[in-house]
Amino acid sequence: MFLVDFKILTFEVLPGRKRDSNVKINPLALQSDRMFGRRIAMMKRLIALCSFVFVSLIATAQAKPPSPEEAYAIGVEAYTYAYPLVLMELTRQVAASAPDPDQMHAPINRFSHRKTFPNARFKDVVRPNADTLYSWLWYDVGSEPLILTLPDTGGRYHVIPLMDMWTDVFASLGTRTTGNGGGTFAIVGPDWKGDLPAGTGIIRSPTSVGWIIGRFQTNGPKDYPNVHKLQAGLLARPLSSDGTAASQAAGPSMPAADRSVPPVVQAANMQPAQFFALFADLLKRNPPHASDYAIVRRMERLGLVVGKDFDLATTDPVIQQAMTRAASDGYQRIVNRRSAMRPAATGWMAIGNSLGVYGNDYLQRAFVAYAGLGALPAEEAIYPMAAFDGQGKPLTGASRYMIRFEKDQIPPADAFWSLTMYGQDQFFVENPLQRFALGDRDNLKFNPDGSLELYVQATSPGPDKEANWLPAPAGAFTMNMRLYLPRPEAIDGRWSPPAIRRLED
């Protein structure tokens, strides 16, 4: 670095000053002026040279390829950052490839409505719930807005969250935010400008494509018909539509997709070159969030540039080797996030309150996509997870467990709560009762003192306790509690689920 004293540049130099003709010019003074001028010129050239050298050094440093260690580290970060976007696209391909709506699939910009709770054969989205009936819609508002009409639910809890392709819930409609009285809203693209019908609320999507996962509280199978009526009142139509069925054409068509392999498995099986190529292609249509540019600049060092194709085979061999290894390790880093989360002494793990809106916590975002794609923000629902008992041992159907809630420790939720069982693959497990969840809308038996005991095991605890039995598989399993509209003490940690106690034989 060169340090220049810029004080000399503050001297007043007036080369155009008009001199008094009666004043004699001193030759020595004139020579001094000329020398001063030459010094100024030399100083300017020196400053310019220093600036050129400094900029050249920066450019050289930027152009220098990363070392194998740096390339690997950036590759792991890039995989973690990319995973939710890639998984969302694979899920979209499966869900939106149907020519007509069915219970879980529909063309773009059209709703599909789940008419019953998922069963053990359902594999489209990991860790589904058996508390609400879903209404799903994959939207594309790149050409024009999509008008949503919500029904009046008559006081029934519902939530209509909107996720961008990065899995962030950027808007949430329904009981907590807009109330139960229904309404009309327009989803518009990131750059859309225009006029909307009077009384239509505007929702600007950060990405032109996104996902709506509506949920209506459902109080068991007997409640299905009531919810079906509400689902029928949840409508979507293009802005240009006149409201008739013929004018409500679906958005861009999707090619046929393999529905036999769950999207989460497809993502796990992708080769590194295929994974990063798809990610680069998705980046062209799904711009990074405003706070993402640190990771964006780091990825550029690997040749992953927003708006450009990426072919791993054409990159430097050092980068090829590093990114191939990074993809495998990046995936394991996401999967192992759960084991890195330390359970409380009770056996429960708080997934964290950064759900639905993740900021720059890319590992949390990737883990939630892997373990529960479509999770709601904490104000809407929380999901305490259990993989261990109160002794720190993994949960297994080879043992029997009991969870006791004291009267003042019943889960604090203003909508409802439940406990749901999952096998090792994160899906429901077949059982004799076809019971995958247990909660406050079931006919639970409370103790005389107001406490509640739930039994978690592979075999029946006996007729007198079967109402409170959540069947478990024979092997390893995990569980999630769900609290919809959790009270403040559940969000800030003053309340947590009680210990999972292993029962002695």
Characterization of this structure:
The chain has 505 residues and is an alpha+beta fold. The protein has four domains: 6-63, no CATH class; 98-247, Sandwich (Immunoglobulin-like), CATH 2.60.40.1610; 268-335, no CATH class; 342-503, Sandwich (Jelly Rolls), CATH 2.60.120.600. The protein is built from ten helices and 19 strands. Strands 10, 11, 12, 14, 15 and 18 form a six-stranded antiparallel beta sheet that branches. A five-stranded antiparallel beta sheet has the order 1-2-8-4-5. The chain has a four-stranded mixed beta sheet with strand order 7-6-3-9, with no helix packed on it.
Question: What would a concise description of this structure say?
Answer:
The chain is of the alpha+beta class. The chain is built from 10 helices and 19 strands. The protein has helices at 27-63, 68-95, 224-232, 263-269, 272-285, 293-300, 317-335, 337-340, 362-372, 488-491; strands at 112-113, 132-140, 146-150, 158-164, 169-174, 183-188, 201-204, 209-217, 235-238, 348-349, 381-382, 385-386, 400-405, 413-422, 437-439, 452-457, 469-471, 478-486, 500-503.
